[in-house]
């Protein structure tokens, strides 16, 4: 019987399920909708239903059953609390798997990018979260639950800060910012009395493109707008605090790979956020760090993690490149 591993990257919008053999050869893959208990109306019951149907579909067309999968790695959105992790482990066991790991999808960035298979991953997309895995296998998550855990750097937060900065200039004796005329143009208004009613209407009717607002913020930061730069610096410090806090809860003796992942990090065209982030991390960390931008698909990390468990060793660079190439080819079918 062919030995196979399963890697799953389950986000809030889509889920990738991939099968590989132990030599790192792609067998099959499928991309479907979210399997997250947070994104489904029936919660954990929905997560079980969706993952079971999806995995069985993939296995069936390859004449396999769950018992034929030697090891599986699941990186899932919404694994933020021990109780959530426990529920999802029970769900995966019910599907029929015996050898598997389940963690927050942020950990996939570490496995996909770190040369050593350990490190810290700072994710900045719609929201933010920091996760870490040390040389002894200990895991730590900082943030990921919103304002309570200081997650003030993600795309949703930065968009709010842009709109607040404009409002501050108009009504709260805030500093002048070039964001104001830019946002006015975006909203197609000319008078300050129009700002709030038009903005609220567009927010309520989902007419605001968050990506466009974030690009605007970076562009004005690059143009020297001090308000924009300060917003980005504070976001960098926020993420840096989470990274340092995560590192201090773990044990690293060698240089720590810090992986930067998510759409905001990937499109950070103004250096203010990155520079503030690096300065704080390096000032408050006793072990050297090295930075990596996540470019590999996160599901690549799930496959590499499953292979690491199966082979009982961190996959070689040659094997990593082999897996990455095949995952990228697989993803082209969904573009």
Describe the structure.
It is a single chain. This protein has helices at residues 43-60, 82-95, 107-113, 155-171, 179-187, 192-204, 210-222, 226-248, 263-266, 271-283, 298-311, 317-332; strands at residues 4-10, 14-21, 26-33, 69-76, 100-104, 119-124, 128-133, 139-143, 256-261, 289-293. It has a five-stranded mixed β-sheet with strand order 3-2-1-4-5, sandwiched between helices. A five-stranded mixed β-sheet has the order 8-7-6-9-10, sandwiched between helices. It is globular and about 70 Å long. Strand 1 and strand 2 (14-21) form a beta hairpin. By secondary structure, it is an alpha/beta fold. Helix 3 (107-113) packs across helix 11 (298-311) and helix 11 (298-311) packs across helix 12 (317-332). It is built from twelve helices and ten strands. The chain starts with a strand and ends with a helix. The mean pLDDT is 93. It has two domains: 4-105 and 296-332, ATPase, nucleotide binding domain (Nucleotidyltransferase, domain 5, 2-Layer Sandwich); 114-295, ATPase, nucleotide binding domain (Nucleotidyltransferase, domain 5).
Labels describing this entry:
five-stranded mixed sheet, alpha/beta, Nucleotidyltransferase, domain 5, 2 domains, 10 strands
Shape: globular
Beta strands, count:
10
The CATH architecture classification of the largest domain is: 2-Layer Sandwich
Please tell me how large the radius of gyration is: 22 Å
Helix coverage percent of residues?
A: 40-55%
Low-confidence segments: none
- The number of helical segments is 12
What would the average pLDDT be, to the nearest integer? 93
Q: Main sheet: which strands, in order across?
A: 3-2-1-4-5
CATH homologous superfamily caption of the largest domain: ATPase, nucleotide binding domain
* CATH class membership of the largest domain: Alpha Beta
| Helical/strand content category | alpha/beta
The main sheet comes to: 5 strands, mixed
Q: What fraction strand?
A: 15-25%
Euclidean distance between termini CA atoms: 33 Å
- The name CATH uses for the topology of the largest domain is Nucleotidyltransferase, domain 5
Number of domains: 2
């Amino acid at each position: 019987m062919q030995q196979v591993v399963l890697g799953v990257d389950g986000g809030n919008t889509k889920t990738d399920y991939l099968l590989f053999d132990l030599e790192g050869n792609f067998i099959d893959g499928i991309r479907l909708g979210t399997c997250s208990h947070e994104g489904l109306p029936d919660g954990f019951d929905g997560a079980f239903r969706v993952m079971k149907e999806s995995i069985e579909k993939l296995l069936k067309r390859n004449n396999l059953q769950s018992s034929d999968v030697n090891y599986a790695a699941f990186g899932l959105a919404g694994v933020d609390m021990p109780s959530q992790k426990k529920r999802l482990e029970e769900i995966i066991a019910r599907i029929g798997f015996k050898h598997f790991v389940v963690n927050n999808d942020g950990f996939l960035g570490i496995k996909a990018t770190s040369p050593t298979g350990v490190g810290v991953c700072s994710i900045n997309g719609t929201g933010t979260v920091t996760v870490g895995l040390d040389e002894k296998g200990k895991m730590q998550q900082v943030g990921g639950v919103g304002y309570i855990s200081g997650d003030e750097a993600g795309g949703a937060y930065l968009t709010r800060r842009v709109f607040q900065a404009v409002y501050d200039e108009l009504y709260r004796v805030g500093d002048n910012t070039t964001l104001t005329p830019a946002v006015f143009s975006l909203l197609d208004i000319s008078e300050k009395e129009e700002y709030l009613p038009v903005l609220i209407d567009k927010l309520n009717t989902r007419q605001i493109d968050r990506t466009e607002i974030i690009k605007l913020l970076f562009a004005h930061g690059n143009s020297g707008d001090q308000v924009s730069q300060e917003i980005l610096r504070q976001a960098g410090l926020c993420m840096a605090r989470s990274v340092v806090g995560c590192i201090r809860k773990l044990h690293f003796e060698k240089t720590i790979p810090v992986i930067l992942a998510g759409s905001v990090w990937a499109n950070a065209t103004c250096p203010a956020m990155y520079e503030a982030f690096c300065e704080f991390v390096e000032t408050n960390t006793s072990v050297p760090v090295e930075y990596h931008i996540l470019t590999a698909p996160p599901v690549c990390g799930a496959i590499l993690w499953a292979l690491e468990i199966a082979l009982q060793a961190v996959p070689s660079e040659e094997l990593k490149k082999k897996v990455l190439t095949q995952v990228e080819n697989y993803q082209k079918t969904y573009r």
